[in-house]
Amino acid sequence: MDISSLRHSKEKTYFIISVIFSILLWIPFLIIWWFILIIIWIIKYINNSKTIKILYWNTLYLQEWQIDEVYKIAKELSDKLWLEEVPTIFLVPWSWTVNAFALKFLSKKYIILNSELIDLFLEKNNIAWLKMVIWHELWHHAAWHVNFWKNLLIMPANFIPFLWSVYSRASEHTADNIWTYLCWDKDKAIKALITTIIWSTFIQDKINIDLLVKQEEKAWWTLAFLEEIYNFHPRLTKRIKYLNRD
Fold first, then answer.
1. 88 and 35 within one domain
2. Which of 65, 91, 157, 221 could form a Cys-Cys staple with 60, CB 3.0–4.6 A?
3. Cα–Cα distance, 173 to 49 (Å, whole number)
4. Sheet holding 60-62: strands in order across?
5. Domain of residue 43, residue span
């Protein structure tokens, strides 16, 4: 059956006119949308540029000849994760960050480490734990969690309640998974995670992981749920429970 022979004589004409008008109406919308994205990009560029300058001016930039034992660890682990280059690493004081985080600005990768946490690990010669912290942040780069264009693409998801925070928490679990997998020791990975949160190596051998996870039962589950859905990191007890699963 020839469908074209059954079409109304003016259907095609009206369709072409509809397409033309639709394109004319879509163009301003797309221009406005791209204008908004450009404005967002400029704001993020300015903010990130300012942050990087402040880091260079007021923190310690780790290089091959500057705190080289930490730099060598980062180089070794970057090679294992097939990263093209070692991210630029800064040591910052307690007031700047809780422990560590990854940042990417355009094509340049950065890792921000808390200097007191690094001191804690080096003082006790806990090189394996130091590696786990660096591995965690390197994986955020390897998994494109901090890729500028990827995050710009999914930025509209911010308008969907809780979606962005859910994605962020899932990314943290992914990074926790990789350091557990790479160290081949679940208990060691969990204790390293605990240390980065409670900042103590003296009691780590005394910690009962099962009892720590059960602390969740001391709080109402509804409060735990409501508290977490706004956060970009999973709560400590949940991260430990996730890593400690069979």
1. no
2. 91
3. 29
4. 60-62, 88-92, 108-114, 100-105
5. 19-58
Q: Are both 125 and 173 inside the same structural domain?
A: yes
pLDDT tens per residue, range 186-208: 777 787 787 777 766 666 667 77
- The per-residue pLDDT for range 98-112, each reduced to its tens digit, is 678 888 887 789 999
Tokens 């900042």 belong to residue: 199
| Residue type (1 letter), 243 | L
Question: Quick check: 94 and 67 in contact, CB under 8 A?
Answer: no
Model's pTM, two decimal places? 0.72
On whether both 66 and 45 belong to a single domain, the answer is: no
Render pLDDT for 9-51 as a digit per residue (tens, 0 to 9): 667 777 778 788 888 888 888 888 888 878 888 888 888 888 8
Q: Examine residue 236 and state whether it is found in any structural domain, yes or no.
A: yes
